[in-house]
Amino acid sequence: QIFNQHNAEAPSLEQAFRRMAPMEPNLDHDLSWFLLPSYWAKMVVALISFLCFANSYDGDFVFDDSEAIINNKDLRAETPLGDLWYHDFWGSKLSSNTSHKSYRPLTVLTFRINYLFAGGFYPVGFHVINIILHCTISVLMVDVFSILLGGLQFSNKGRRLNLAPKSSLLAALLFAVHPVHTECVAGIVGRADLLCALFFLLSFLGYCKAFRENKEGHTFSVFWVLVSVVLGAIAMLCKEQGITILGLNAVFDALVINKINLLKLIQKLLYKDKALENAGLLRKGLLFRITLLMCGGASILYIRWRIMGTGPPAFTEVDNPASFADSLFVRAINYNYYYSLNAWLLLCPWWLCFDWSMGCIPLIKSVSDWRIIALAALWFCLIGLICQALCSEDSHKRRILTLGLGFLIIPFLPASNLFFRVGFVVAERVIYLPSIGYCILFTYGFSLLSKQAKKKKILAVAVLGILLINVMRCALRSSQWRSEEQLFRSALSVCPLNAKVHYNVGKNLADKGNQSAAIKYYREAVRLNPKYVHAMNNLGNILKERNELHEAEELLSLAVQIQPDFAAAWMNLGIVQNSLRRFEEAEQSYWTAIKHRKKYPDCYYNLGRLYADLNRHIDALNAWRNATVLKPEHSLAWNNMIILLDNTGNLAQAEAVGREALELIPNDHSLMFSLANVLGKSQKYKESEALFLKAIKANPNAASYHGNLAVLYHRWGNLDLAKKHYEVSLKLDPMAPGTKENYNLLRRKLEQLQKKGS
Predict the structure, then answer these.
(1) Whole-prediction pTM value?
(2) Strand order in 217-221's β-sheet?
(3) What span, in angstroms and rounded, lies between the C-alpha atoms of 520 and 758?
(4) pLDDT tens string 151-180
(5) CA triplet 347, 351, 356: central angle to 5 degrees?
(6) How far is the C-alpha of 183 from the C-alpha of 64, rounded, in Å?
(7) How far is the C-alpha of 502 from the C-alpha of 272, rounded, in Å?
(8) What ranges do the domains of the chain cover?
(9) What is the pLDDT of residues 681-717, one digit of tens each?
């Protein structure tokens, strides 16, 4: 549907469009910068944005990628596609009390497609898509900035004109090479921000398309307004910030299409000026279009609310300490300080960190804290810009400053803590969209400086220098995102007070087997945050493995005291108590863990080990059976069932369990070995031999596999083969228990046979 706009009392949209170019100064006029055709400008932006992040293409899965991708069952083919619409970003049910309520089904769908095409968790494909998305967004920015900086005007053929080719190229380059974007591009989880930004920009461009000229004169198309709303909804299904584009479209409509002077409009509203009735807004369609945007936005939010429920996200004090402060003054001061840090990251993106929580930014609790200066500086600049945006006599200046502030502030609102608590202090990823506003303001400031400067080339060289430094910073930062070790260590110098940084460095070292170094970082994490239960749990685990059981018990007991529903700590405490032979306490700890996590196969496995130590064989078998029901691929539980049944003489039952296990896990060599032992005792030598050989093929360096196969041949009468495998077993492990004695017995028997033969 197309609405023609004619108004005798107010200028038509056609007249407004045609007046725009001669009445407003051209931003490019005094700008000392490169002038390229649109096609070449986009090629340059695409190439430079690619160069910034190309070295991240073969990086690993790092940090949050593990939870959002590797451990997310929604990516696997066996999970119904419909589940994506009822789960959060991390694969948890939205109705769960532990859900973060981050509803991004379309982003998860792209992860799932990545996983299916790659045939598994291979990070290259995930990284390549992220790089392509950022390059695409950067190219779209050329068109977006040409509208925001140069206005919206069409040729007689209905083709949109780029009235600011130089400034739009500069702004797009600033966006493309901004180092704060590294987390979104090099971190795979940043796909949410990239997809959101893509549809955010498409929604804006679609809204602009609603005002394209046709033969009957300038009109607006309801169809393209509705398309813009739909694209805004898609952006929100990628990440929550996407909904803010509807508000920005309304701001753009008022400022650019209708050329409203906000200050005068506010004055008329305050004084109930009758002239407001003759403003022609209704007949120019602004109120109608804003009504469409508002209805669309309200519908989107209502549907989202119905899907995710009314419960708030579950965050802890360590995630966002300011939001848990009792004093409203402390909350307000710290929120504003966080805003100033975000602004600083846009201005000087040198100190970047993957996580800014857990003491990285200590709370401001008094006005005597010197950091109050940052708040004052932020609001001094913002108030100055707002005053210029409202009060300037230059309509061109008012428009650009208002649009710059709008794109800077409005997309940031969902992360501002103003409407609801967020799960972070500062997050570089949430600045991806607000950086559009920063680029507008920077470019406009550069044009003003160029206008005043006598040596414009020096100014242009300075800006080129900034771009070059940012490119190098992007390359360096994206290389740090290639592996967890580099990423975590890079944060030590930026946030030395962040307990999570030390925890992650320690965990990375522990995963690589460097327990001594890991202990140092875990202890520092606990020192910085004495309530850091995950650090206590991991440190307790390492101490348990090093047989430092009493300190391990103290740490784990403190962890469950701080967080009584911490199931993993309860299980690990049970393991330590079992090792200390305090069996009743261990059993109680295991059952407490299961109480807090109903589906906990590892805990059932350890409970089974406890019952086996107490000779409670039926209870042990039941516990291990529960473990395999919850996790059919739990090899250790299957093995222990087979071994216990074998040791208690229940060979038929042991064989049945072994065959059941191998059907579920056909390539597990330890299960082949255990079942082969049972079959050998049952005198099923041929089948036992086949399983032993298959196990040895899978794991040829296991001395026990060769030793037990030798015993089978020894019983079977294949003495030469028995001798061969005894020798292989002793070569692999000269101290293998029983193997040397059996080998000596075989040798004596062979010597006796030789004597008889001679």
Answers:
(1) 0.84
(2) 2-4, 217-221, 213-214
(3) 69
(4) 888 777 778 888 889 999 999 999 999 999
(5) 105
(6) 11
(7) 60
(8) 195-310, 321-343+356-465
(9) 998 989 999 999 999 999 999 999 999 998 888 888 8
